[in-house]
């Protein structure tokens, strides 16, 4: 049976014991003969329980006990579950049958399963299930008290994970969890919610000042680098906070709203964000836009407009920059500043980015056929596209489909984008350079790339950010920065172009410092391909007039 079986008379004396019971209790049949079974159940000094159990054996009903402790011959205990069944002869109860099973291993396994169900297997901290149960329990016990849910996220963890590998990322999470536990009061309940997000339950921390004290303590604790796989690694953190009962009545609502606040902190590059009701509406709208964006490409809602880049020396259009637009069927025209970040985060940008390259290349081919044979095409790459190992193959196929030389395609990347994962960026950009396409660094002067980085990558063009152009006529510092960028670009044999040129005064100053490539509303706002083709002659006349008559008059 795999179970112990003992038969007792109505006084509890053993009349039969099977081999499994002998093995479990370490008594032999000879030693067991006529002994009181309760000596196995209880220690000698537990007289009261012994009497109660003897009374139970005389009951006419079957009884089951899920967990109890029996004792062996040497006094050591064994964890069992057992069933007591009345033994009836000739209609009279003459004793009881006790069937029992050693549940020691079962109990250990059950405890292990429970532990695994409530703890994160990587860091050993409580997991989301345990955190939610603990939070709901605290709310139920103290419904009138305030408490705060504090989410802690590791800044740029995804890029660290992608650049250094998942094994390094896991090691970082383990060390991060240890440091978090060590620096905070043992009474604080800390858990790992998911990925790089940890959560802390702060009882009676209803004021923003009190919560900020905790966040500042955590920030200070991570100024000392973590030792990860023999490397010293410094991390920065973001915080999202939701407070009970203002921001939620239960764990699900509080964690959701704290997570919304954490997302806002990440996106706005802020360390600390407290949830407020308007965030939920913004987040819901964002999710709706993401859902609609999935259908936008298939429904032909996305389209391109083009802005000319002018060579002031030849007084002609040297390139057209393709700019993505979205005409939503209900909301109308959606700003690229709104939908492109959504596309980036949802990875839709890969599909959309390939569509932009293909659509713009087809249009350039048509313009070449119309006689604009020297015109180049400029397309901005996204950060996710720079993570694509097959990006150069995709671009080569598109160029071959449209019978375009690679030198007619210019790809724009931003400083900050290339610095996210430097090794990957260098690898992909070198492949593209080998392919023969031109590389332009966009928004130059606003990021943090080094001059040696520019030299090693051999960019073809620097694009001066419009934030410098906007006030460089009146602002001496901006003028000095623009002049320095232009001079540096020429010394590095790189083309330099100023974007955001809107006034004749800006144009005149740029020409004075030998910046001869111009883009901006002064010449033309973005327009459709049809508008450019129809209005080209008129537009060319406008360029010549601005660069001769208007500049001289200014």
The gist of it:
The chain has 554 residues and is of the alpha/beta class. It contains 21 helices and 21 strands.
Radius of gyration: 37 Å
**Which strands sit side by side, in order, in the main sheet?**
13-14-16-17-18-19-20-21
Helix content: 40-55%
- The number of strands is 21
Structural class: alpha/beta
Q: Give the integer mean of the pLDDT values.
A: 85
Major β-sheet annotation: 8 strands, mixed, barrel
Number of helices: 21
Fraction of residues in β-strands = 15-25%
Question: What is the overall silhouette?
Answer: elongated
Weakly predicted, low-confidence segments:
none
Distance between the termini: 105 Å
Break the fold down into its secondary structure elements and pairings.
Layout: E1 4-9, E2 14-17, H1 19-25, H2 29-32, H3 38-41, H4 47-57, E3 63-71, E4 77-89, E5 92-102, H5 104-118, H6 128-141, E6 147-154, H7 157-164, H8 166-183, E7 189-194, E8 197-203, H9 208-221, E9 226-228, E10 231-233, E11 237-244, H10 251-267, E12 272-274, H11 277-296, E13 302-311, E14 316-328, E15 332-334, H12 336-346, H13 348-369, E16 376-380, H14 391-401, E17 409-414, H15 415-420, H16 422-435, E18 438-444, H17 451-457, E19 461-464, H18 466-469, H19 476-491, E20 495-499, H20 504-512, E21 517-519, H21 529-553
Parallel strand pairs: 11-12, 14-16, 16-17, 17-18, 18-19, 19-20, 20-21
Antiparallel strand pairs: 1-2, 1-5, 3-4, 4-5, 6-8, 6-11, 7-8, 9-10, 13-14, 13-21, 14-15
Helix pairs in contact: 7-8, 11-12, 12-13, 13-14
């Amino acid at each position: 049976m795999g179970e112990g079986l003992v038969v007792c008379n109505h006084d509890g004396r053993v009349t039969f014991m099977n081999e499994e019971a002998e093995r479990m209790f370490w008594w032999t049949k000879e030693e067991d003969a006529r002994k009181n079974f309760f000596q196995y159940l209880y220690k000698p000094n537990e007289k009261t329980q012994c009497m109660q159990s003897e009374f139970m054996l005389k009951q006419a009903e079957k009884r089951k006990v899920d967990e109890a402790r029996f004792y062996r011959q040497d006094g050591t205990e064994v964890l069992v579950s057992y069933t007591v069944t009345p033994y009836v002869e000739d209609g009279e109860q003459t004793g009881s049958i006790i069937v029992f099973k050693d549940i020691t291993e079962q109990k250990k396994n059950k405890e292990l399963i429970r532990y695994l169900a409530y703890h994160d297997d990587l860091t050993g901290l409580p997991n989301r299930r345990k955190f939610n149960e603990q939070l709901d329990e605290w709310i139920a016990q103290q419904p009138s008290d305030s408490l705060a849910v504090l989410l802690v996220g590791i800044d740029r963890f995804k890029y660290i994970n992608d650049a250094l590998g998942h094994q390094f990322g896991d090691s970082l999470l383990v060390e991060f969890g240890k440091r978090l536990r060590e620096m905070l009061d043992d009474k604080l309940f800390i858990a790992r919610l998911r990925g790089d997000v940890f959560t802390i339950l702060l009882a009676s921390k209803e004021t923003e000042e009190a919560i900020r004290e905790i966040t500042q303590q955590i920030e200070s604790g991570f100024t000392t680098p973590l030792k990860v796989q023999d490397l010293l690694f410094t991390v920065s953190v973001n915080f999202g906070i939701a407070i009970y009962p203002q921001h939620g009545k239960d764990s699900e609502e509080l964690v959701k709203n704290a997570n919304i606040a954490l997302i806002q902190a990440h996106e706005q590059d802020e360390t600390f964000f407290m949830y407020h009701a308007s965030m939920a509406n913004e987040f819901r709208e964002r999710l709706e836009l993401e859902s609609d964006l999935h259908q936008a490409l298939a429904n032909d809602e996305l389209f391109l407009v083009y802005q000319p880049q002018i060579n002031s020396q030849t007084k002609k259009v040297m390139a057209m920059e393709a700019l993505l637009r979205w005409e939503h069927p209900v909301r109308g025209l959606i700003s690229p500043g709104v939908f492109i970040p959504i596309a980036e985060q949802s990875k839709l940008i890969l599909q959309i980015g390939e569509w932009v390259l293909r659509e713009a290349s087809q249009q350039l081919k048509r313009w070449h056929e119309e006689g604009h044979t020297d015109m180049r095409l400029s397309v901005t790459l996204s950060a996710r596209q720079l993570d694509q190992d097959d990006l150069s193959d995709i671009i080569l196929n598109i160029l071959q489909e449209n019978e375009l030389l690679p030198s007619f395609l210019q790809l724009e990347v931003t400083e900050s984008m290339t610095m996210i994962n430097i090794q990957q960026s260098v690898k992909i950009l070198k492949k593209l350079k080998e392919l023969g396409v031109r590389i332009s660094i966009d928004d130059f002067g606003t990021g943090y790339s080094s001059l040696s980085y520019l030299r090693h990558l051999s960019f073809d063009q620097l694009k001066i950010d419009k934030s410098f152009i906007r006030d460089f006529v009146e602002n001496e510092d901006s003028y000095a920065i623009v002049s320095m960028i232009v001079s540096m670009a020429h010394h590095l044999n790189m083309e330099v172009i100023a974007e955001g040129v809107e006034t004749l005064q800006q144009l005149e100053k740029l020409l004075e410092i030998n910046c001869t490539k111009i883009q901006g509303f002064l010449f033309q706002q973005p327009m459709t391909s049809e508008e450019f083709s129809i209005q080209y002659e008129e537009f060319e006349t406008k360029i010549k007039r601005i660069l001769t008559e208007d500049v001289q008059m200014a």
